[in-house]
Design goal:
With 205 residues, this protein is an alpha/beta fold. The protein has ten helices and ten strands. The chain has one domain: 2-enoyl-CoA Hydratase, Chain A, domain 1 (Alpha-Beta Complex), CATH 3.90.226.10. Helices cover 43% and strands 20% of the residues. Helix 1 links the parallel strand 2 and strand 3.
Length: 205
């Protein structure tokens, strides 16, 4: 359910469980974590997260969430792993982003989404705290008040609003997503390792 593909030194991880809205099990999260580690060890220029179907991810698998996955430390471990990667990281959001799946997306350097995507993180309604680093990363992108809108008021945000707030960086038609990812990763593919990692270290956040 986690597919890993390589195109030169660009690694793409695809969540492929569309019949369950790409909801994530612990094994799937571990698979993404391992793929990120392998990409870093291989000296990847870019690491891309995407999904199959019309939803990027609905968050935790419901059965596993009830069994403890909702508060499992693996979510924070995964977002921390992605945030620390020295390569360019891109979330290519093929659809709606919800719940715990926010963590890995907020940890990416860039976020592009299809126009019909929706964004919501209903921890307040469900009685859970968000992953520890998520509020800070979200506030760095969209500010504290808008972060409260999503996390405390449990508001569902449309793609156009997400773009205007800075939660995503570009809206892309589904048929153009692959070309957009190529465009965004073209420069880092060509750059020497020292240059691309050096520039990333120079950019705060």
């Amino acid at each position: 359910m986690i597919e890993v593909a390589q195109d030169g030194d660009v690694w793409t991880v695809r969540i492929n469980r569309p019949d369950k809205a790409n909801s994530l099990t612990r094994d799937m999260l571990a698979g993404i974590f391992e793929a990120a580690g392998a990409a870093e060890a291989a000296g990847a220029a870019a690491f891309v997260l995407t999904g199959a179907g019309k939803v990027f991810s609905a968050g935790a698998d419901l059965e596993e969430a009830r069994a403890g996955l909702a508060t499992d430390g693996i979510w924070e471990d995964l977002s921390g792993r992605i945030a620390a990667m020295p390569c360019l990281t891109v979330a290519a959001l093929n659809g709606t982003l919800a719940g715990g799946a926010f963590g890995m997306v907020l940890a990416c350097d860039l976020r592009v989404a299809v126009p019909g995507a929706k964004f919501f993180y209903p921890v307040m309604k469900l009685g859970y705290l968000p992953q520890p680093s998520d509020p800070g990363r979200m506030a760095a992108l969209i500010g504290p008040a808008r972060t409260r809108m999503i996390l405390m008021a449990a508001q569902r945000i449309e793609a156009e609003t997400a773009l205007s707030w800075g939660l995503v960086d570009r809206l892309v038609a589904p048929e153009d997503m692959a070309d957009t990812v190529i465009e965004l990763t073209e420069a880092v593919r060509a750059a020497p390792v020292a240059v691309r990692t050096g520039i990333k270290r120079m950019i705060p956040g």
